[in-house]
Amino acid sequence: xxxxxxxxxxxxxxxxxxxxxxxxxxxxxxxxxxxxxxxxxxxxxxxxxxxxxxxxxxxxxxxxxxxxxxxxxxxxxxxxxxxxxxxxxxxxxxxxxxxxxxxxxxxxxxxxxxxxxxxxxxxxxxxxxxxxxxxxxxxxxxxxxxxxxxxxxxxxxxxxxxxxxxxxxxxxxxxxxxxxxxxxxxxxxxxxxxxxxxxxxxxxxxxxxxxxxxxxxxxxxxxxxxxxxxxxxxxxxxxxxxxxx
Length: 245
Ligand SMILES: N[C@@H](CCC(=O)N[C@@H](CS)C(=O)NCC(=O)O)C(=O)O
Description:
Elements: E1 17-21, H1 27-37, E2 41-45, H2 56-61, E3 69-71, E4 79-80, H3 82-93, H4 105-127, H5 137-164, H6 176-190, H7 203-213, H8 216-224
Parallel strand pairs: 1-2
Antiparallel strand pairs: 1-3, 3-4
Helix pairs in contact: 1-3, 1-6, 1-8, 4-5, 4-6, 5-7
This protein binds glutathione.
């Protein structure tokens, strides 16, 4: 991993990305990385109270009607899918992801994809169980089981940090997977409809979250999302206009 911005290619701080999002939605993950990489970007608010993510204009950017979207200078289409955006930015900048030939590249990829397609996916369902099952006992049970699955995934990640001896998921080096994990850990504590996850029983993950909370880039990103106080270890929902409806 190199520790400076790539001098060439599209990872230059003076090129302006456009980040579409609403407070404390998945755009926070992309913002954390943009801030860590010190890239220039413009914020494009998406008002979730007005369901702006389903407007014709937004659907042209992401036909799923989901946040975030990142418009990337030099790319022929807007990007969606948080994990894909992270990987693209980290690889382009040659920072916050192991190089393609590095021995920890495979380890990085498997956990990044696990966070994206298992942990984040389960969280999304736990936030909106009514999209999957009608209201009633079955939905309640389903939601409780999801919180169990989420707790299981976060415990696996805690054990991985113990195995690598931390402070980060891959060991000594911060990667974009840590940023994604931190946002998921935040949301798991505040947004599931039935039952919230807690930090007791995941000491290494808790330490990782505390370490991240001290980083200036993380503080900047959280402030821009309207998040006050300790974003990951004592999270509170944001109250900014345009947030989750
Ligand atoms: N797989 C997508 C999930 C994105 C997602 O679920 N976004 C939520 C906000 S955190 C959203 O747009 N929700 C609006 C809706 O469901 O209408 C990703 O990783 O980007």
